[in-house]
Write a sequence for this structure.
């Protein structure tokens, strides 16, 4: 906050009043020093009142029981996030190893999932030293104002934001790719994507640093001094009164967060509708092709299962829908908080956004770590490849050939 009053202290005022002024006023040096002390005390009290007025200006923001719960969680956030990061790092390494196998790497969707795992792995690897020092090594309420730590926090903020934006871009690419593969499997758009799969994967890695460009100039290492202390204190902060500061919030919340969430919401609904339509279409075809045989099977308590390719197609679509829904749960609250920070400006960001910071980090880490569990639960090919890779089980050539053939034709 800018100080409107003059920056006066005892030494500067004593130098300002020269010897002739002291003689004209017929005052002693002790009287002048006492007067300067009283004036200095008055100026300090005036600045304190101005700060209290600013605090009162933001009074009433973000109060309630939910913030007490958030503060209670913040005390254990370091240990929870560390466990998730360790598990997520190992899980994503396993994902990369499985998805790079020959029988898995043929599918373009698996290539996207592989690079998504790479981005998530680096996010969690970088977060481990940060959470160990910030939340475990340092005591609650303790802060490090050294220059080295301020630089590390700034690098951590930019690095994680870029990689997380890459993950968002790959998730959107994954959803669009699956939508085209289902709605227009033999169209010109599908053929174009197949012939430019590398460019589609590379595009999020190029565009993400560009979208994060305003952040590089908004947040900087700031230097300040504590009262009655010559030691400088360093911290990461931004000038909240600039247009670039507000513009950065709009870019981060609308373009990076909310716009992908809207796209993924629409695609998720389309994919779910395609699943329902495919199920109804298979039932109609079965009834049309062999109504008498199908009726006998129903009377005998038997059901004709859909072809293996169709079942695998549905499982793949369900897997991607689960990935997209988890992404929406993680990213939409962050985008909404960022949008409110841009609209309501300093009071909301100063009092409402920070308590949710650890929860937002937790959701992002869970989203980055849960992929291995989803793939294992919903993809039979992933489970089969994982077992053949790590448990050294012997799978016949017929089984692996079938998996490879299904991958190239159905996924």
């Amino acid at each position: 906050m800018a100080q409107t009053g003059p920056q006066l202290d005892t030494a500067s005022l004593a130098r300002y009043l020269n010897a002739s002024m002291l003689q004209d006023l017929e005052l002693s040096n002790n009287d002048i020093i006492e007067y300067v002390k009283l004036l200095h005390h008055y100026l300090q009290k005036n600045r304190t009142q101005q700060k209290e007025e600013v605090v009162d200006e933001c009074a009433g923001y973000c109060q309630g029981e939910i913030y007490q719960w958030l503060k209670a969680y913040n005390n254990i956030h370091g240990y929870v996030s560390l466990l998730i990061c360790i598990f997520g790092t190992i899980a994503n390494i396993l994902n990369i190893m499985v998805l790079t196998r020959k029988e898995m790497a043929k599918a373009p969707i698996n290539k996207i999932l592989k690079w998504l795992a790479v981005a998530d792995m680096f996010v969690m690897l970088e977060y481990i030293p940060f959470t160990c020092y910030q939340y475990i090594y340092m005591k609650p309420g303790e802060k490090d104002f050294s220059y080295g730590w301020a630089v590390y926090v700034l690098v951590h903020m930019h690095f994680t934001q870029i990689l997380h934006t890459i993950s968002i871009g790959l998730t959107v690419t994954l959803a669009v790719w699956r939508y085209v593969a289902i709605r227009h499997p033999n169209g010109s758009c599908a053929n174009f994507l197949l012939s430019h799969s590398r460019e589609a994967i590379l595009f999020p890695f190029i565009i993400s640093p560009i979208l994060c460009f305003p952040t590089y100039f908004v947040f900087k290492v700031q230097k300040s001094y504590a009262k009655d202390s010559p030691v400088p204190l360093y911290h990461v902060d931004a000038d909240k009164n600039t247009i670039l500061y507000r513009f950065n919030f709009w870019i981060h919340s609308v373009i990076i967060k909310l716009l992908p969430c809207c796209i993924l919401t629409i695609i998720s609904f389309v994919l779910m509708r395609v699943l329902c339509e495919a199920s109804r279409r298979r039932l109609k075809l079965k009834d049309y092709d062999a109504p008498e045989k199908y009726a006998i099977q129903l009377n005998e308590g038997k059901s004709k299962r859909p072809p293996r390719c169709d079942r695998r197609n549905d499982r793949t679509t369900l897997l991607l829908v689960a990935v997209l829904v988890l992404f929406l749960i993680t990213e939409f609250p962050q985008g909404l908080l960022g949008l409110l920070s841009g609209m309501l400006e300093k009071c909301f960001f100063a009092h409402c956004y920070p308590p949710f910071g650890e929860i937002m980090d937790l959701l992002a880490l869970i989203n980055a770590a849960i992929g291995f569990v989803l793939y294992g639960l919903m993809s039979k090919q992933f489970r089969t490849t994982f077992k053949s890779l790590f448990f050294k089980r012997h799978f016949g050539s017929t089984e692996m050939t079938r998996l490879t053939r299904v991958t190239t034709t159905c996924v």
